[in-house]
């Protein structure tokens, strides 16, 4: 079984998302936090050491090249995380949502090995982060920095982190009320025709997601950016460009 993609997108549009208790749990339930963690796109905290790692391209960063691999890595038990909330139904659901063009991943590679990344759902000018993982020092931080930079590049307005953690707080995330979150969400989804029924599924995430993720996936040129001309380049940006973008806007 998988969750119907239209139901899932409609849930995101009202501030709700699915979770499970454990990797092996059978039940999925819907969550609506009273306090919401978000990453202000112009408030990402880029430490000197992280900037150095990104600037030197210590890792290779891509998008949507191994979505299934990122989800599987996020779902695996680790020393600091014996179990996860990603059960098999949720994993299948987001793989299907990726196939329909709404779920996206950022992959972090050490050579040919996938060592970190994140995945989530893009809808309108919002990105709903679902999970991130690191199998090398700073790999998840690098993924989130690149995601934030690409979202700024593309004109997104909301990066939803769901629940606050000390890891997210150290990178600049803040916590807001559900009411304030819904206000930001309404602005980010203003042009998404969710009332059109299942026809919305044929549209994919839209132009903002295309601009943000396609260059890292090796697709078409990312033209039409609202940012400086120096950033409107085809193909993946370098770590140096990401650092410059984040430090100029923080």
Automatic annotation (TrEMBL):
Localization, UniProt: Cytoplasm
Recorded GO MF terms: leucyl-tRNA--protein transferase activity
InterPro entries on file: Acyl_CoA_acyltransferase, Leu/Phe-tRNA_Trfase, Leu/Phe-tRNA_Trfase_C
Keyword Nucleotide-binding: no
Homology family: Belongs to the L/F-transferase family.
Catalytic activity line of the entry: N-terminal L-lysyl-[protein] + L-leucyl-tRNA(Leu) = N-terminal L-leucyl-L-lysyl-[protein] + tRNA(Leu) + H(+); N-terminal L-arginyl-[protein] + L-leucyl-tRNA(Leu) = N-terminal L-leucyl-L-arginyl-[protein] + tRNA(Leu) + H(+); L-phenylalanyl-tRNA(Phe) + an N-terminal L-alpha-aminoacyl-[protein] = an N-terminal L-phenylalanyl-L-alpha-aminoacyl-[protein] + tRNA(Phe)
A Pfam family per the record: Leu_Phe_trans
Gene3D superfamilies (UniProt xref): Leucyl/phenylalanyl-tRNA-protein transferase, C-terminal domain
Enzyme class of the recorded protein, top EC level: transferase
Protein name: Leucyl/phenylalanyl-tRNA--protein transferase
């Amino acid at each position: 079984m998988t969750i119907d993609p239209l139901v899932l997108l409609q849930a995101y549009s009202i501030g709700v998302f699915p979770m499970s208790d454990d990797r092996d749990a059978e039940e999925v339930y819907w969550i609506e936090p009273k306090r919401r963690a978000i990453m202000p796109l112009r408030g990402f905290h880029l430490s000197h050491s992280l900037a150095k790692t990104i600037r030197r391209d210590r890792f290779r960063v891509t998008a949507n090249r191994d979505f299934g691999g990122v989800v599987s890595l996020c779902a695996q038990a680790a020393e600091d995380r014996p179990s996860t909330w990603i059960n098999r139904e949720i994993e299948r659901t987001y793989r299907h949502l990726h196939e329909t063009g709404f779920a996206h991943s950022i992959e972090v590679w050490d050579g040919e090995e996938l060592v970190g990344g994140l995945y989530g759902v893009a809808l309108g000018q919002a990105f709903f982060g679902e999970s991130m993982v690191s199998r090398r020092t700073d790999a998840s931080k690098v993924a989130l920095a690149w995601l934030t930079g690409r979202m700024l590049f593309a004109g997104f307005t909301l990066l939803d982190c769901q629940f606050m953690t000390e890891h997210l707080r150290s990178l600049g995330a803040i916590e807001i009320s559900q009411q304030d979150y819904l206000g930001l969400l309404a602005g980010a989804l203003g042009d998404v025709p969710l009332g059109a029924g299942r026809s919305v599924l044929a549209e994919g995430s839209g132009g903002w997601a295309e601009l943000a993720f396609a260059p890292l996936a090796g697709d078409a040129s990312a033209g039409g950016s609202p940012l400086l001309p120096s950033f409107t380049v085809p193909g993946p940006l370098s770590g140096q460009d990401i650092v410059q973008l984040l430090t100029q806007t923080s």
